[in-house]
Amino acid sequence: MNSDALKKIYRLAGEAVVRFRMIADKERILVALSGGKDSCVMLDTLVHLREVAPINFEVIAATFDPGYPKFDAASIAGFCKNYGVEHHVVKCDVDTIIREKAFQEAPCVLCSRLRRGHLYKLARQLKCDALSLGQHLDDAVTSFLMSACRGQGLTSMAPNVPPHSENAVRVIRPLILAPVSAIAEAAANLPLPAGGHCPFEEQLKSGDRAYFGALVDTLAERIPDVRANILRSFAHIEPDHLVGGQVVHKEFEDAL
């Protein structure tokens, strides 16, 4: 499929892959495929780039099945079959673990850790060079605002992250330059699977990420290019013009 919406994503992802040196010749890329719009567009895009890129690389897909009753891993496998992409499923009874660990108030935190750990392990078993995640421009901007407002530092989602431990693998984010609106438009051209279902979806709607995501939308009403502007600012950090980049007096620290 080559709709204008998909072509836009192909162009943005291609730019990101080249700019941030995400994929090298003869590498094996494991795509984390949840069955949602973002991950399905990512798989479609990487398959396209594989066909047109001047280098050769493999695309393999993996789905983390959390064991929820309505999660349809079979439909996600069918989506991969349409692309001729090898597909793996890793299962985990997330709901039981959440209850055992008493994480009902923050289930996404624990689920994310479990999902990442299982996908890291599979990537190593399959001898993959990188794990591709579907986070996009809005995710990066939202994460930055959340971190800054919580006092956790000026940090966000990097496009090409080296392994942080022996048990991890390199993480890439090919959609990092694509706004969520463009991804949603592109996804409308794909035969999306019935895919995943999360019983905590309603809880997510009232969470911090949803709040800050809505805040970005509000900012965009006044500054239409706010997402791209924040992304551009990531590359222009001036420590001498930040409080943390200079000596902080003891009295000021005490006041905080």
Question: Quick gist of this model?
Answer:
The protein is an alpha/beta fold and 256 residues long.
Could you walk me through the main structural features you see in this protein, from its secondary elements to its overall organization?
The chain has eleven helices and six strands. It is of the alpha/beta class. The protein has one domain: HUPs (Rossmann fold, 3-Layer(aba) Sandwich). It is globular and about 50 Å long.
Topology:
Layout (H helix, E strand, L loop, with lengths): L3 H16 L7 E6 L4 H16 L4 E9 L7 H11 L2 E6 L2 H7 L6 H19 L4 E3 L4 H13 L10 E2 L8 E3 L7 H8 L13 H5 L2 H15 L3 H9 L15 H6 L1
Parallel strand pairs: 1-2, 1-4, 2-3, 4-6
Antiparallel strand pairs: 5-6
Helix pairs in contact: 1-2, 1-7, 2-7, 6-9, 6-10
Task: Describe the largest sheet.
Answer: 6 strands, mixed
Which structural class is indicated by helix and strand composition? alpha/beta
SSE pattern, N- to C-terminal: HEHEHEHHEHEEHHHHH
Share of residues in strands: 5-15%
Supply the CATH superfamily name.
Answer: HUPs
Tally of distinct domains: 1
Proportion of residues in helical segments: 40-55%
Provide the CATH top-level class: Alpha Beta
Looking across the biggest beta sheet, what order are the strands in? 3-2-1-4-6-5
Distance between the termini: 55 Å
CATH architecture: 3-Layer(aba) Sandwich
Average pLDDT reading: 88
Shape designation:
globular
Figure out the total of helices: 11
Number of strands: 6
The radius of gyration computed from the alpha-carbon positions, rounded to a whole number of angstroms, is 19 Å
User: What is the CATH topology classification name?
Assistant: Rossmann fold
Low-confidence stretches: none
